[in-house]
Amino acid sequence: MDEHSAHEGDIEKGSISLWGGIAMGTGVMIGAGIFALTGQIAELAGPLFPLSFVAGALVTALAAYSYIKMSNAWPSSGGIAMILQRAYGPGVVAASASLLMALSMIINESLVARTFATYTLRIFDLEKNGLLVSGLALALIIFAYLVNAAGNRSVSGFSLFMSAIKVGGIAVFAVAAIWVSGFSSGAFAEPISLSSADALLASVAFSILAFKGFTTITNSGGEIVDPHKNVGRTILYSIAICIVIYLMVAVAVGSSLNISEITAARDTSLAAAARPALGDIGFYFTIAIAISATTSGVIASVFAVSRMLTMLTEMKMIPHSHFGMNGGIRSHMLIYTVVIAGSLAVLFDLSRIASLGAFFYLIMDMLVHWGVFRHLRKEIGARASVLLAALAADAVVLAAFTAAKLQSDPAIVAYAVIGIGVVFVLEWLFLSRTRAAKTPSDEHKH
User: Fold this and answer.
1) 3-class DSSP state for residue 178?
2) Class of CATH domain 5-431
3) CA distance 260 to 249
4) What's the predicted TM-score (pTM) here?
């Protein structure tokens, strides 16, 4: 039995159509990212902030090349862990990078949960109350745990239904706001300064977070119909749909508000943009869409992360302890996921959570590209130039983002470096101990 069989035994092959995969991919991508990150991107990039989404899409499309080539060659529900293990072998690098991916997904859960809380409290003008935001974010994460603990089928059906509502709702908001405000008011009437090109580049790290949900498609490769052909199509179509929606939202916000107004309303910028453009009806409509998008986003994310952590445990890539709990590995991973996400949602604000997620994700993504370039490109027929371009794009964005954060919030850079270091050290200790435990029994057999 191979390393994925235990995990894939529960998977129904060919259960997701091409359009079902696109709905899943766009549903995950068009979530809290656009609600939470638009204000932060505009704060960094100024009136040129819609270009940040274009740059984010280009970097993501380059990055997707590695995942598409790997999924075409070996479609697997092992997803990113499978790619890393084939590239680096079952060692510290593969295990650590896989865990960084899982942690970036957990970080995203806390980002989504706090976005839910800030938009909900915006109705009562209480979104600045840190204690209430933390409490409400934690409540949503606990609710997501209860839904997931109830069963898997309700999660997938609910997620697809909510995807259609939120994508449609965001598109309606964007078209209506642009129709009312036009293209030459708000932020777009302000002078453009190219001297802040480094800040625009740094903002692309946040834009990439708004697209990184495409990796969910990679993790579901074994379930998509005709995966050798359709995984790549699903990823590219999802990215294309998202860039259209994101650009519409960016233009809608930028035409309704100037940069100082977007910055002031940073975490709820879409709701702030809806009021001058569309009045109270638009304001409450946008908040309703945000609440539905973030609720479904957290539920789907808890499902995806607990599944990925279960798979990593079965592949012997991360340690597992029952801590005296009943039930199987999956039920334990659900609890670990919500405990970590809940802790982050209580301890950090939106900006810091998003920053931490960007650092973890970019490092993991670079390790994927390097691994494919170094060890697998000939086997899967990947072009070295594209792989190196993806690696360079990630490196440039990471360097610009690190420089910007060292100026504005050096503590979060320290947290990211310590967090990544701890992951690698703990994985090294765990795998060393696992090998040491195997050696005597192996010798005894001989």
Assistant:
1) helix
2) mainly alpha
3) 18
4) 0.88
